[in-house]
Amino acid sequence: MLLFMLMNKNKEIYPSDLSEALNVTRQRITSILSSLRKKEFVVMELSKKDRRRMQVFLTYKGKKHVIAKVKIAERLIDTLIDRLGYDNVKQLSSILEMVVRKK
User: What is the pTM of this model?
Assistant: First the structure.
């Protein structure tokens, strides 16, 4: 959810957007947002455009957290690629493309 918010930082984000984009129930989104607010990774405010809706914002602390996690994932992927070697990475890539196409 934090990565989605970071990738869409210039857009207004509402809980319903998160539910739809991440294919998660509204109840689960509410629970996750509550947890993220406690960790101070997100804040919620009334929308300036529609005062009936709550808008979700990624905090600086949340942004730092997600960027750190992305860097860890990138290092893990680099390590995996190094250990597999070019031919195996090419084969894995082909397999993953087939999986994605079948969805």
Answer: 0.79
